[in-house]
Structures are given as structure tokens and as C-alpha cells.
Amino acid sequence: MNKLGSEDLAEIADFARKIRLNSVRMVWQAKSGHPGGSLSIADILAVLYSKVMNIDPSSPTMPDRDRLVMSKGHASPAMYSALALRGFFPVSLLAGFRKLSSKLEGHVHYGVPGVEASTGSLGQGIGIAVGMAMAGKLDNAQYRVYAIIGDGESEEGSVWESLMAGYKYRLSNLTVILDRNMVQLDGFTEDIMPTPDIAQKVRSFGWNVIEIDGHNYQEIYAALLNAKECTDLPTLIVAHTVKGKGVSYMENNPKYHGQPPESEDLFNKAMEELA
Ligand SMILES: Cc1ncc(C[n+]2csc(CCOP(=O)(O)OP(=O)(O)O)c2C)c(N)n1
Prior knowledge:
About 45% of the residues are buried. The chain has ten helices and five strands; from the N terminus they run αααβααβαβααβαβα. By secondary structure, it is of the alpha/beta class. It has a single domain, classed as Thiamin diphosphate (ThDP)-binding fold, Pyr/PP domains (Rossmann fold), CATH 3.40.50.970. β2, α6 (about 155-170) and β3 (about 175-180) form a beta-alpha-beta unit. It has a five-stranded parallel beta sheet, sandwiched between helices. The structure holds thiamine diphosphate. The site of thiamine diphosphate (TPP) has 20 residues, from α2.
């Protein structure tokens, strides 16, 4: 079945809503962090962690688990929220984000249950995922590897080296999701380094490429299943998203790439809009 039922949809919506609420709250409490690129991937994480990935939070290192590398490692608020809500560690620990003595560092950190690789230096995580997928093939293992990359991140040459390797080694066990929100750190990707028709570019690298609305649960789910069914090529899902999705004043606003709401009023407004 490639379609989600109404109960599944409601469950995913609730999961995504909680990822967003927790992400903004964490950045607000820490007085630093990255809300925009966390809000853009909340729906994708919700589908992956609730309906697609083979994981067991009570056994986070089971050998055949699916692996996810958050290559855009600054999206740690969303990643940690998804893992906590899924049961890898208590949700109460999210309050320690970016604080001394907490494991929840500002960028996704190995050692937090459910995290497969430390990331934050853009362009590195996708290469780690390629290595994991190669190991999986060599071992004849059943697991799949997922990587989430940013469009600003894709200005790194190492992303394209990884894409070439993914094709050469026919890593059909690898799904890369590109968060195509059109915004990077301090501006719009198409002003800073345009990549028109990035789907076509990656297709020409030999990959199976699917374009979706990255906030539509049915489309996210169908694309992830399509990737699983593609047994001879790695898959790139170009997920068209909105940076800051769900908080009106953050949407498409580069300012909220890496800063919390400036006032308690703005924080409360975000909480109300996301509730
Ligand atoms: C190698 C490297 N260069 C620069 C940075 C600083 N940096 C952090 S996030 C970011 C922008 C990333 O944009 P994008 O990949 O589009 O992320 P998103 O908009 O999805 O949050 C930059 C330049 C970094 N973390 N790593």
C-alpha cells in the first residue's frame, strides 16, 4: 500500500507538530540555534521516523536498523526532537539543548541515542552515508541508509563527489533527501549560488530522482517507498519545502536561519501558530 490512511495521517501530523514546537522552544531556551531549517524538515522526519524506517528505540544499535545521517547538522533541534518523541531518550532532556553538561550539542552529535554520525561541517554527512551504504552492500545487510542534505549545503563540492560515488557503486540502499527550501545562511540560494533544475543535474549523474512537495505526507511516503523499490540505483528525493514552515514571520526569512525569536511576544506567537 503506497497510501497512508487517515489514522496514519493524523499520527504524522501530530508528530510533526510536536517536532516543530519542541524545535522552536529549544532554540528559544538556549538563546541560540537554527529554527528555520528545522521547521522545513519536520514533516519529512515525522514520516521517516513513524512510518518508514526500521528502528527500535529500545535497541538503538541493532545491526539491521536503518540509518539516518543528518548531513545538515545544524538542524539538530528537529533531529533531537524526532528522536526524543520516538522514544530514543526522554523528551525532558531537550531542555538541555546547547547547555553545558548536556549531550545535546548545537550540531547533531554522535553519542546521542539514535544519532548515527556527528555532523555540522556541511558537505560531510552525505559522504558518511555513502560509506555506510557501501558497507551495507558489502555485508549483504538489509538496512537502508538515509541522508538529509540542504540546498545551501549542496554548494559544497563534496556533495557532488558523493553523488558520483553513489552511482558508481549503485547504492540502491541509499536515499538522499534534499531539503530544497531555497534559503541558506544569509540569503537565497539562487542569489548566492544558483542551481537551477537540481533534479535534472542529479539525474544526469545517474540517480533515480523524485521531486515532491516536502510538506505533503502522501508524497513524502510514496517517494520513500519508491526509493526502496528501486533496486539498481540510489535515489535522491528533491523535497520542495518552506524554510521556517509553520511560523508566519519565520517563513522564507533568512534571518531565522540561525537565531531564536527576538522577544517573548514573538516566541509566544510561534507557540500559538504551531499549537
Ligand atoms: C563547511 C561549512 N561551511 C559553513 C558552515 C556554516 N553554515 C551553517 S548552516 C549554513 C547554511 C546552510 O544552508 P542549507 O544547507 O540550505 O540549510 P537549511 O536552509 O536547510 O537550514 C552555513 C553556511 C558550516 N556549518 N559548514
